[in-house]
Design brief:
By secondary structure, the protein is α/β, with parallel strands linked by helices. The chain has 14 helices and 23 strands. Helices cover about 35% and strands about 25% of the residues. The strands form 6 sheets. The protein has an 8-stranded mixed beta sheet. A 7-stranded mixed beta sheet has the order 11-20-15-14-13-16-17. The protein has a two-stranded antiparallel ribbon with strand order 2-3.
């Protein structure tokens, strides 16, 4: 009799792919101890909170790959399944999280639909790539798992919405987060507890044995105090002496913006090793300022920033780019590219007081009571800096100047607000902005 063929199920295929992945671990997927603990845990809700350069996103993407192949830790889950990977903004998703997942999972990826931002794996599993800047847009199909990268930049409503989606196949799904801490926020409240459903894995930057020690040494020289404890040691810090104690996500962060503005400026802070920043700020008919969008990037040359400036002018009708005056050659480069670039007023204390006044002043609108300065939730780096920008204390306990960390977006914002609030500012005709 001819031999009867044995049927092969999707689970069989997923198991073979997973075993093949495990065999490759020693060669292609190397993890240090804390990364391995995070990848291998079976706990339903897990967070890897660690210093910069600690390989958080890499570990999160390895766990996502395993999940798409049918494994959460040592537990089997059905395949093909549907998962979601999120990042705070589209540039972060595109430039960091997606790139890392492709590096980790390339042999197992069948296709990437960039228009729909959907990854299809060889075994039929799908992964939706989404941003967390508008949480309501995350509502949708049931999923088996969710991975949130740089989650400390999310509002806590993202967690609530995503946990409600973890029900594919009628089973409770799994969620994991990777992030550098940003104060004692909702992640601290959720994961620093004794609940068996939540597990917190911690690591410092120096724990990453695959990172050049010279990089760590440079960071340890540059960073100090609370900022070093947070950024390098991955500690949850209760920040004291915040410059903008008036700021609150509940009061100042919105998901919807006006369609037209009477005046649009862009604050510019230069950087290369540190982030360079461009912030587009629009003024409505009531004189209220809306922080519309941010461009926040390290290692971008001035010629590239000139291209970004032209892009922002075309998208938002920027009237004027007000720039950090410390680099006059950079300002000339923007001018030569054809944009209206000017030196910003860099009077630090006056600028801080101008921003503080707008944060603390409210007025009634058709949207309700709003501050005179409102920030789009898509500006994740600006929000993060607001919650970490601290005063320097003297020996007498007095605040005499801000600490020069977590200040790149804060400087750009100060330039923009000062430019709008300067005396006798000419108001231009309102123009409509298309956010699509």
């Amino acid at each position: 009799m001819p031999r009867q063929k044995k049927s092969v199920t999707a689970s069989d295929i997923a198991l073979r792919l997973f075993e093949n992945l495990k065999q490759q671990d020693d060669v292609d997927i190397e993890l240090y101890n804390q990364q391995r603990d995070f990848v291998d845990t079976d706990t339903p809700y897990t967070a890897f909170v660690a210093g910069i350069g600690s390989g958080k996103t890499y570990a999160g993407c390895v766990r996502a790959l395993n999940a798409s192949l049918g494994r959460i830790g040592n537990r089997t889950i059905p395949t093909p399944n549907l998962g979601v990977i999120t990042a705070p903004t589209y540039p972060m998703l595109r430039d960091a999280t997606l790139r890392t997942f492709q590096d980790v999972a390339q042999p197992y990826i069948k296709s990437l639909n960039r228009s729909g931002m959907v990854i299809t794996m060889n075994n039929g599993s799908e992964i939706l790539l989404r941003t967390a800047d508008n949480p309501d847009r995350l509502r949708g199909p049931n999923v088996s798992w969710w991975y949130g990268d740089e989650a400390a930049m999310y509002g806590n409503d993202v967690w609530r919405i995503m946990i409600g989606r973890l029900r594919q196949f009628g089973q409770r799904g799994s969620a994991w987060l990777t992030t550098t801490p940003r104060g004692r926020n909702w992640i601290y409240q959720l994961f620093v507890n004794d609940d068996d459903n939540y597990e917190l894995v911690r690591a410092s930057s120096a724990d990453n044995v695959y990172l050049d020690r010279a990089i760590i040494d440079a960071w340890e020289t540059e960073f100090s105090g609370d900022f070093a404890r947070q950024e390098l040691l991955g500690e949850f810090i209760a920040h004291r002496g915040l410059v903008y104690e008036e700021f609150s996500q509940d009061r100042h962060v919105v998901t919807e913006l006006p369609q037209s503005f009477h005046h649009v400026v862009c604050g510019v802070d230069w950087g290369y090793a540190n982030p360079g920043v461009m912030l587009v700020v629009g003024m409505d008919g009531d004189g209220r300022l809306w922080l519309i969008t941010e461009r926040y990037q390290r290692q971008r040359r001035i010629e590239e920033w000139a291209d970004v400036a032209l892009e922002l002018r075309g998208m938002y009708g920027v009237d004027e780019f007000v720039c950090d005056p410390s680099e006059p050659d950079y300002i000339r480069t923007l001018q030569q590219a054809g944009v209206n670039a000017q030196r910003a007023n860099n009077t630090v204390m006056t600028g801080i007081q101008t921003v503080k006044h707008r944060l603390a002043t409210y007025g009634e609108t058709s949207r309700g009571r709003l501050a005179r300065l409102v920030i789009s939730r898509s500006c994740a780096n600006v929000i993060s800096e607001f919650e970490q920008y601290q005063w320097r204390e003297t020996r007498d306990g007095l605040h005499d100047a801000p600490i020069k960390t977590n200040d790149h977006a804060m400087d750009a914002l100060r330039y923009a607000v000062m430019a709008v609030d300067k005396p006798k500012q000419q108001r231009l005709t309102a123009r409509t902005i298309n956010y699509a």
